Amino acid sequence: MSVAVDRPRSAARGASSDRTETKVRVRRHRGPKTRTAIQAVVIAIWCLLPFYWMIVTAFRDVGFTFSTDPWPSHVTLDNFRTAFSTELGNHLGRALLNSLFIGVVVTAVGLLVGTTAAYALARLDFKGKSVIAGAILAASMFPGVALITPLFQLFTNLGWIGEYQALILPSISFVLPLTVYTLTSFFREMPWDLEEAARIDGCTRVQAFRRIILPLAAPAVFTTAILAFISSWNEYLISSQLSSDVTQPVTVAIAGFQGSVPHQEPYTAIMAAGTIVTIPLVILVLIFQRRIVAGLTAGGVKG
Amino acid sequence: MIVPTGILLAVVIGYPVVSAVIMSFQKDAGLDKATGLFVAGGFAGLANYSHWFLQQCTTAAGTGPCPPGNIGAVFWESIGNTLFFTVVTVILETVIGVWMAIIMNRNFRGRALVRAAILVPWAIPTAVTAKLWYFIFDYNGILNHVLGTNIIWTAGEWSSRFAIVIADTWKTTPFMALLILAGLQLIPEEVYEAASMDGASTVQRFFRITLPLVRPALMVAVLFRVLDALRMYDLPAILTGGGGGTGNATTTLSILVVQQIRQGFNSASALSTITFLLVFLVAFVFVRFFGANVVQTQAAQQKGELK
User: Fold this and answer.
1) Cα–Cα distance between A152 and B262 in angstroms, integer?
2) Which CATH number among 1.10.3720.10, 3.40.1710.10, 3.60.20.10, 1.20.120.1080 corresponds to the domain A78-296?
């Protein structure tokens, strides 16, 4: 029986022998256990069913768009071809590259700037620290629409509408508070004694940080990078207003997908596009599941 | 070291907010009737705000009630929609999220699989989620087929509202569940064992132990979701276009701001300032009266007080 293996905090709780006995005694009653299993299955189905429906539809022949067959009948790859074809005014290929480019730049800048701020918040004592921490937190709660009107006007004046920087700059403002908070709570849990020991041995603060802390922080930084990238990949509001056909990211591209028949939703092609956009993300999330949960809860519950 | 972050946030958030507030007190630029020249609007006083709160429009003839069809009239309806979505989705997400978290906190075979499954809706971009549910909600779609109904999900007044509630609940409950699960895992098992020995029932244990002890994590999760729901844009914009019913049944404040941008920056600024004040008011109320003190929670957890 696999018990408490994947429970991150089980070690912290300790395992006294008499508690293990209690657990075993409780488990002899089969009723509650079966009920838990059934509820777990309900949760999994509820979460996965719409996603499954998207993938199944993506492979269906257009003529069978509304098929209620739970299995992928009349399988075809045409929808993926339609999704990438530029004849209908869709730019999925281009949009994927745009999202990738914007995501990488936003993540890189967010991490670079966020790491230093997080380090300062976690490690240094300075005046106004709590005010700054509060301001960064407040920034993360900011409604995007509060920015869009002035940005629209500013970028119009600068001639930036439809340019990449008009999409990257606002996105950084959403990603930055997230990186600062996630990293701050990770940094607080680091073994800073080691860094201090290194400094006593003659390292400068920067050296000690680079040689001791940064390698240890790498997993946390990596987790934050994934969260930042997903956040940027999801951005829609600003991009839908400030991008052009050439610079639009996937979210905007999918929302405005054109079909071969006017005024008719090209569902199968949209589902194919949705599958392409989602699958890499889902794979990424599943591979780094444990870390992402840690990152989400670090940025959420703790800060 | 904090300076780069400070500068970036000041440029990308500070500047727009300050200029939005300034813009909200200005008239839109237009043609001056007397000279025929295009002039900047100048100071407008509270005209942009009365446009929304009182549906008073400024025309060449002066200030009066807005003509029919003016989107200023949608203001109170969109406030109502926004609050409806916030209250209903957050209640649903909290209840389902607590349930999911409790199940996932138990030990069972395949626990890791369920935890992976709940990350899937979270990982799908909202724009894709909206399109996916648009397909599911289609008149000929699978939902009507499964339910055996003929509901026009994305166009009816209440059906379109509930379509958004359902899609939003599906998408964001996992996030809630994860935050609550993290809180649950901080509760030592000994507390439950002691309660069991004292003869507490499952229901008693839930209300007397689980809920009070998970409260800090729960309040933060609820606060985050409330603020997200108040600024909701992607989902209703793509799923229903803000339409439904007589045309505005799912227009949220954020959608209204975007619609207004096309008609005049300064009124849009006033509306975005209203939205931003509403969000901060709600955040303040939460932190002040419900004890969702994010910073304190963090500090307390750091010191181990919440363990």
Assistant:
1) 11
2) 1.10.3720.10
For residue B56, the cross-strand partners are: B65
The answer to whether B4 touches A119, Cβ cutoff 8 Å, is no
Q: Which of B174, B183, B269 has the CB atom closest to A301's CB atom?
A: B183
| Residues 135-174, chain B, touching A (beta carbon < 8 A) | 135-136, 138, 140-142, 145, 170, 174
Contact B152, B140 (CB under 8 A): no
- Which chain A residues contact residue B217 at CB under 8 A? 301
pTM exceeding the 0.90 threshold for the entire prediction: no
Cα separation of B283 and A177, whole Å?
A: 16
Per-residue tens of pLDDT for chain B, all 307 residues: 677 777 777 777 777 778 778 877 776 655 555 565 555 556 666 777 777 777 777 665 566 677 666 777 788 889 999 999 999 999 999 999 999 999 998 888 888 888 889 999 999 999 999 999 999 999 888 998 889 888 888 888 899 999 999 999 999 999 899 889 988 888 888 888 888 888 888 888 888 888 888 888 888 889 889 988 998 999 999 998 888 777 888 899 899 888 888 877 788 888 888 888 888 888 888 877 765 555 545 444 444 444 3
Selecting from A53, A143, A185 the residue whose C-beta is nearest the C-beta of B254 gives A143
Rounded-to-integer distance, Cα A219 and Cα A234, Å: 23
